[in-house]
Write a structure and sequence with these properties.
With 90 residues, this protein is mainly alpha-helical. The protein has 5 helices and no strands.
């Protein structure tokens, strides 16, 4: 079930239905906090916020990924995102 929820979020995001993508990622995070896809769901949630134009929440979520999942590939991707976005501000 968690994998299906994650991939439904991916499909919604690919279809630019960001509201539904956000809902899917949040559902996975809330209902399956210890599942292997939860770190990825956090990261994808951050990307979704960014696509929605909500850079503030995107940064918050990406920082959370780095803090909660330091040994996962999602944390590296989130850190790269944060570096890239902080570079654009300067």
């Amino acid at each position: 079930v968690p994998n299906a929820i994650f991939w439904s979020g991916e499909v919604y995001r690919a279809q630019t239905d960001y509201k539904q993508a956000k809902a899917a990622y949040l559902k996975l995070i809330d209902q399956y906090p210890n599942h292997q896809k939860t770190a990825d769901a956090h990261y994808k949630l951050g990307l979704t916020y960014d696509l929605m134009g909500d850079s503030s929440n995107a940064r918050v979520v990406m920082k959370k990924v780095v803090d909660l999942y330091p040994n996962q590939s999602s944390a590296k991707l989130a850190a790269d995102y944060l570096k890239k976005k902080s570079g654009k501000k300067k």
